[in-house]
Structures are given as structure tokens and as C-alpha cells.
């Protein structure tokens, strides 16, 4: 369940204490971000400067340096959205010349980007987009041909019949670890289920103009979110080694992993037959219910798309539990001090998931995990 910080801060007035979530995470309220918020874009006329090398890891809350829409990555040297990426590429390839009806003085945003192409192209260049990074149609064609040739070569190399090696079973310590993880998760879920009567009931009144009804839906979703966060914290505290970390590292890991774990937990509760997400066994919600609780479609749609995609993988309880443990022990989180210890705590879960998938899904040719291929 995903709610804004402003949502959490208002909950006290609807019957749920905001201190519950604050105490749970051991952090300041201002630090909690339950889904992406916009960062300040680059100043007008100042190109985005970026060091050479791999693009930085996306946090999920970056905005396009050109129009302010949600960024999808670094394109042509600039953090930008898919729309501005495609617009810049088409403009460069065609050598397009645009005209502005406002003498080149348009302020660029998600609305104006469709109205004034000249100012949009100017803003792309000011942000730092480089024309030399745009491949021509011929370069793209040659690149595709090379990729196809490489793929054909790899297929030929692996298509030679050979006896399939028998996969070794899980090591006893891995089997025991996985069983404990699954049991821990079930225990945490059970505690939440027992707290179900404490959740503000979902209102039966469907009047969209009734303020009390809106507040009740708001409180209902927020309390479910708090219970989800409590489950994550309880689970983390039971992971071997977590409590050996400093208090500061525990806070840093929980603060930054919570949103990702909540998405994983949401996806495992997705029911594709009715396109709904079920919490605490009985509470099922579709997109319309999420909207009634105050979330906007720009956040609702990605939640359901992610949930559907994960559901299509047919992961089992063991795989979800291992993914969550790996997610918690991610040493690259901001403000983590003892990276070496966190990585050491994470590695057994990575190894176990890799071994588990090789046995359960022998036809999967490659699994991309930390330190594994």
C-alpha cells in the first residue's frame, strides 16, 4: 500500500496516530517518502553535467530536466523522460526547424512541450542533450544487424545437443534458511491479520461528496500502510545479523527499502482474475478503490502494472521471502556506513535464491543478481 508523507501526517485527525509509523521506522517524519515526489529540475539555461561512465542508479523520483515529467533515465547525456528523448532524436535526425509564436520565450513544462517545439528543442539543448549522441538510421540498422548476428552465434553455440547436467539439491543450510524465512513471513502476516479489527472500516456510503466518507477511506488505506510497514520492520528484525548493525544503518536500510518491499508485497497479493489487490485476506481493492482513497492515477497505474508483471512470473513464497531479505540488505542505500557488513549479510540470500531458481526453473538461462550471472 502506498501513501504520501502528507497522507501519513494527516492520519492522526482520522483516528490513526502518525507516531505509530514514525516509531516503527525509527526516523523523522520528514524523511518518509512512500512514493516518488518531484525533485527540483535544473535551472534554466544550465546544462546538466554528468561524469562519464555508467548512468547513476535511478531512485524513482527523478524528473525530466526538460519538461518536468517523470524521468526514465539518462538520454543523450541528460536525465529526461521518454517523450523528450524521442522528440530530441526525431528533431536531430530530421534536421527540423521550428518556429515559436512567442519569440522563443515559452516556459517549458508538460503542457507547453506539446505547444511549442522550438522552445522544447532549445530547452533540450540547454539541459545538455548532445546531438552527437543521436544515432542515425543507418547506425541503428547496423547496430541491430550486429545484435542479431551475435544472437544467432550464441544460439548456434548453445543449440548443440548435450546431456543436461543434474542440478544439485539445495545445501542443507540453504534449505533451512529458506524455510525459516517463509515461516517468519507467515508469522508477521498472521500478526497483521489479528490486528484487522483495529482498521477503520471501509465506508459503505458511496457518496463522493461526503467529507466524512472520504476521510474514512483515507484513514482505512493509511492504517493498512502502517500495518504493512510494521510487518517489514518485524521481518527485518528477525533476519540474522540485522540487529548487529548500528542503529543508524538499520534506519538507513529500512527507510530506503520500505517502498520497494511494499511493492513486492502488493504484487504477491494481486489477483489477475478481478484485477484487484487483496490485503489481510478479505480487503480487496481495484484501481477505482485506490482513487477513492485519494491516490492519483499516475501512481495507481504503475502499482497495478508492476503487480501484474510480477504475478506473471509465478513466484512462490520462498522466492518472495528471499527477494525481500536481499532488498533489505542492500549496501548501496544512502547513508549506510558499514557497506562491507551489509553486503556480507546479503550474500547468503543471493546465493540461496540463485541456487533455488536454478533448481525450480532449470530452463532459465541467466539470472542477474548481485555478484551472479
UniProtKB/TrEMBL annotation:
<dbReference type="InterPro" id="IPR050234">
    <property type="entry name" value="Nuclear_hormone_rcpt_NR1"/>
</dbReference>
<dbReference type="Pfam" id="PF00104">
    <property type="entry name" value="Hormone_recep"/>
</dbReference>
<feature type="compositionally biased region" description="Polar residues">
    <location>
        <begin position="1"/>
        <end position="19"/>
    </location>
</feature>
<feature type="region of interest" description="Disordered">
    <location>
        <begin position="145"/>
        <end position="168"/>
    </location>
</feature>
<keyword id="KW-0863">Zinc-finger</keyword>
<keyword id="KW-0832">Ubl conjugation</keyword>
<dbReference type="GO" id="GO:0030154">
    <property type="term" value="P:cell differentiation"/>
</dbReference>
<dbReference type="GO" id="GO:0090575">
    <property type="term" value="C:RNA polymerase II transcription regulator complex"/>
</dbReference>
<dbReference type="GO" id="GO:0004879">
    <property type="term" value="F:nuclear receptor activity"/>
</dbReference>
<dbReference type="GO" id="GO:0008270">
    <property type="term" value="F:zinc ion binding"/>
</dbReference>
<dbReference type="GO" id="GO:0006629">
    <property type="term" value="P:lipid metabolic process"/>
</dbReference>
<dbReference type="InterPro" id="IPR013088">
    <property type="entry name" value="Znf_NHR/GATA"/>
</dbReference>
<dbReference type="GO" id="GO:0000978">
    <property type="term" value="F:RNA polymerase II cis-regulatory region sequence-specific DNA binding"/>
</dbReference>
<feature type="region of interest" description="Disordered">
    <location>
        <begin position="1"/>
        <end position="20"/>
    </location>
</feature>
<dbReference type="InterPro" id="IPR000536">
    <property type="entry name" value="Nucl_hrmn_rcpt_lig-bd"/>
</dbReference>
<keyword id="KW-0804">Transcription</keyword>
<dbReference type="InterPro" id="IPR023257">
    <property type="entry name" value="Liver_X_rcpt"/>
</dbReference>
<keyword id="KW-0862">Zinc</keyword>
<comment type="similarity">
    <text>Belongs to the nuclear hormone receptor family.</text>
</comment>
<dbReference type="GO" id="GO:0000122">
    <property type="term" value="P:negative regulation of transcription by RNA polymerase II"/>
</dbReference>
<keyword id="KW-0539">Nucleus</keyword>
<dbReference type="InterPro" id="IPR001723">
    <property type="entry name" value="Nuclear_hrmn_rcpt"/>
</dbReference>
<dbReference type="GO" id="GO:0045944">
    <property type="term" value="P:positive regulation of transcription by RNA polymerase II"/>
</dbReference>
<keyword id="KW-0479">Metal-binding</keyword>
<dbReference type="InterPro" id="IPR001628">
    <property type="entry name" value="Znf_hrmn_rcpt"/>
</dbReference>
<dbReference type="Pfam" id="PF00105">
    <property type="entry name" value="zf-C4"/>
</dbReference>
<keyword id="KW-0238">DNA-binding</keyword>
<keyword id="KW-0675">Receptor</keyword>
<protein>
    <submittedName>
        <fullName>Oxysterols receptor LXR-alpha-like</fullName>
    </submittedName>
</protein>
<keyword id="KW-0805">Transcription regulation</keyword>
<keyword id="KW-0010">Activator</keyword>
<feature type="domain" description="NR LBD">
    <location>
        <begin position="173"/>
        <end position="373"/>
    </location>
</feature>
<dbReference type="InterPro" id="IPR035500">
    <property type="entry name" value="NHR-like_dom_sf"/>
</dbReference>
<feature type="domain" description="Nuclear receptor">
    <location>
        <begin position="61"/>
        <end position="136"/>
    </location>
</feature>
Amino acid at each position: 500500500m502506498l501513501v504520501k508523507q502528507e497522507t501519513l501526517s494527516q492520519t492522526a485527525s482520522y483516528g490513526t496516530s502518525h507516531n505509530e509509523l514514525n516509531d516503527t521506522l525509527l526516523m523523522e517524519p520528514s524523511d518518509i517518502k512512500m512514493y516518488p515526489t518531484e525533485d527540483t529540475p535544473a535551472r534554466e539555461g544550465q546544462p546538466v553535467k554528468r561524469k562519464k561512465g555508467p548512468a547513476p542508479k535511478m531512485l524513482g523520483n527523478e524528473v525530466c530536466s526538460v519538461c518536468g515529467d517523470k524521468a526514465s533515465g539518462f538520454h543523450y547525456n541528460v536525465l529526461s523522460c521518454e517523450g523528450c528523448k524521442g522528440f530530441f532524436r526525431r528533431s536531430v535526425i530530421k534536421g527540423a526547424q521550428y518556429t515559436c509564436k512567442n519569440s522563443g520565450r515559452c516556459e517549458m513544462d508538460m503542457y507547453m512541450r506539446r505547444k511549442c517545439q522550438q522552445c522544447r528543442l532549445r530547452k533540450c539543448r540547454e539541459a545538455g542533450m548532445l546531438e552527437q549522441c543521436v544515432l542515425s538510421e543507418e547506425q541503428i540498422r547496423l547496430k541491430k544487424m550486429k545484435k542479431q548476428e551475435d544472437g544467432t552465434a550464441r544460439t548456434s553455440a548453445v543449440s548443440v545437443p548435450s546431456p543436461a547436467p543434474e542440478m544439485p539439491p539445495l545445501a542443507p543450510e540453504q534449505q533451512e534458511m529458506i524455510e525459516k524465512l517463509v515461516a517468519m513471513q507467515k508469522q508477521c502476516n498472521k500478526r497483521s491479520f489479528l490486528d484487522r479489527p483495529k482498521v477503520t472500516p471501509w465506508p459503505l456510503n458511496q457518496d463522493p461528496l461526503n467529507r466524512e466518507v472520504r476521510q474514512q477511506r483515507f484513514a482505512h488505506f493509511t492504517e493498512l500502510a502502517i500495518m504493512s510497514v510494521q510487518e517489514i520492520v518485524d521481518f527485518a528484525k528477525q533476519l540474522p545479523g540485522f540487529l548487529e548493525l548500528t542503529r543508524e544503518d538499520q534506519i538507513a536500510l529500512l527507510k530506503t527499502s520500505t517502498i520497494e518491499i511494499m511493492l513486492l508485497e502488493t504484487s504477491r497479493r494481486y489477483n489477475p482474475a478481478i484485477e484487484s489487490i487483496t490485503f489481510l485476506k478479505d480487503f480487496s481493492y481495484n484501481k477505482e478503490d485506490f482513487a477513492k482513497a485519494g491516490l492519483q492515477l499516475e501512481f495507481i497505474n504503475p502499482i497495478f502494472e508492476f503487480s501484474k508483471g510480477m504475478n506473471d512470473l509465478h513466484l512462490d513464497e520462498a522466492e518472495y521471502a528471499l527477494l525481500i531479505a536481499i532488498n533489505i540488505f542492500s549496501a548501496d542505500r544512502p547513508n549506510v556506513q558499514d557497506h562491507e557488513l551489509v553486503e556480507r549479510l546479503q550474500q547468503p540470500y543471493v546465493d540461496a535464491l540463485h541456487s533455488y531458481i536454478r533448481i525450480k526453473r532449470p530452463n532459465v538461462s541467466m539470472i542477474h543478481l548481485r555478484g551472479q550471472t
